[in-house]
Amino acid sequence: MTKPLEADLKALHKCALIVATKLIAELTDSQQTHLSVCVAGGGRLILELGPLPDLLLVRVVLVEREGSRQNVCSISVTPETMQ
Question: How far is CA 83 from CA 13, 14, 43, in A?
Fold first, then answer.
């Protein structure tokens, strides 16, 4: 991996943690508890960016152990706010 790409991936990782943490913090206590139980039971949280080509939507998705997916929370922006 090239150094510039490695630096970009590190920056993306840092931003993804910040965004996911802030989105999850907006959930109610009972919703956060539900997520904790699901993750403790083998589920996982993923952060999705999309759709291509603009990537104006960021979504936290719970992938349950059985494979079913639940949108947990999301935020979208407009091209104007990205300028």
Answer: 21, 21, 36
